[in-house]
Amino acid sequence: MAPYIDLDAWPRRPAFEYFRGFDKPYFNICTQLDVAPLRAAMKAAGVKGFSLACHFITMRLANAPEHEALRLRLDGGRVRVHPQLHGGATVLRDDGSFAFAYLAPADDFAAFMAAAAPVVAAARVPGAPFDPRLDDNAVIHYTTLPWVHFTSFSHARQWGREDSVPKIAFGRIEADGARQRMPFSLEVHHAVVDGVHVGRYVLALEAALADPAPWLTG
User: How many separate domains does the chain show?
Assistant: First the structure.
């Protein structure tokens, strides 16, 4: 079982105690990511699955030691730190409905794709379980809006639940000269994550997307 943070020794305890009682303790950032290098690298390597590549890179970064804040979860007045997260992604079906698919983390992109592709395909089958898994906290929630080049984003919330799972959204890509800009939203719970943690994560994500070949080849 994932261990708990020692609150008595945690420098963030005052912020944790302050924000955990808020009616709306979540904050969201939206930015534009240049995905032209990733698309070019995938084309050069003969690799398909752009959306899953975005899931892979963002999930692997969240599992890096320096981004531990994204793995913290509220748990009955305490803070649990998960050693590793997986991904819970929305999958659109041909009839316009959707279901959730759960993507296992991996250090190797080919291994990630080999495991993720059949999971996504199974979620697309009409009548497959909706499978929201509300009690699963060792996860990042993902969604994609390929129709909208959004500049802001807000997620559905069930008030009263101790939901501290980070939520990531990807949007429609638009060309901007040589750049291809994709909207990216990250929503977190302020009792466990601060702006500095989000900023460092986004900077690391920008660096990964600027030089994506090592992420695709290992």
Answer: 1
